Amino acid sequence: MTALLASLLLAASPPLVQFETYTLPNGLTVTLARDTRLPTIGVNLWYHVGAANETAGRSGFAHLFEHLMFQGSKHRLGNEQDFAGLLESAGSSDLNASTWNDRTNYYETLPANQLELALWLESERMAFLLDGLDQAKLDTQRAVVRNERRQSVENTPYGKADVRIVELLFPSPHPYHGAVIGSHEDLQAATLDDVKAFFRTFYVPANASLVIAGDFEPARAKALVEKYFGPIPRSPRPPPPAVQTLPVTRQSR
After folding, report:
1. Are 61 and 182 within 8 A, CB to CB?
2. Which of 142-179 are b and which e, b meaning 16 or more Cβ less than 10 Å from the residue's Cβ?
3. Which residues pair with 20 in a beta bridge?
4. What mean pLDDT is predicted for residues 178-203?
């Protein structure tokens, strides 16, 4: 019985994921995980920036860029439909982004022969997003984010309670204090220069990790990564946020 159980557990063990990680001269970390069982590829670009990297009076910027990243760049001046439309017309089955305290990630899943398209688009908005960002786009997406806050926090059962719990767990000045989505006041106060300065600081190769997983030839994937991300100049990796955890001296309800 013991031998049978052991064999069943062994058969149920997850497959070992083989991967290779290397770093470009500009600081971009690249991880390749080849798996040819399906003719698809997934591209996931993580920027090591989130709500914890924001300063007082400038909350919500990382999540705001989750929206602005889909609004065009120097060579793709269209809107979200333009960006997503390119991927969907190429057979993308999944594309989106998400933001949390310590990271923001952008991802797409495509047929294996569309790897170059995904890498071009991701490098395009890393290198040239600000060339296509103007006041109108900022105002539009600021309004979208504020409405998202109304839907997800202010008009949702226990939405405000969730934010309050985080504030009690991580009292100011801890970088996790407050809502990832930011406040109406800070979003309204943000200027175009403020937003651009935030992008120049955090959305740089040395502060990002690129993962390619799926059905690809490693040599070609490396060549494409070098082609699209290699020319992006190196910028300093921003310092981590200062973490000051205050002692919990009493029960809070």
Report:
1. yes
2. beebbeebeeebeeeeebeeebeebbeebeeebbbbbb
3. 32
4. 97
CA distance 116 to 57: 39
What pTM was computed for the model?
A: 0.90
Report the alpha-carbon distance of residue 80 to residue 158 in Å, rounded: 31
Q: Are strands 208-214 and 104-111 parallel, antiparallel or unpaired?
A: unpaired
Cβ(145)–Cβ(182) under 8 Å? yes
* Domains of the chain (ranges, CATH numbers): 17-216+224-229 (3.30.830.10)
What does the block give as tokens for 18? Answer: 């083989």
- Collapsing DSSP to helix, strand or coil, 44 comes out as strand
* In contact, 62 and 54? CB cutoff 8 Å: yes
Question: What is the C-alpha separation between 23 and 30, in angstroms, rounded?
Answer: 6
Q: Provide the pLDDT confidence category of residue 77 given band limits of 50, 70 and 90.
A: confident
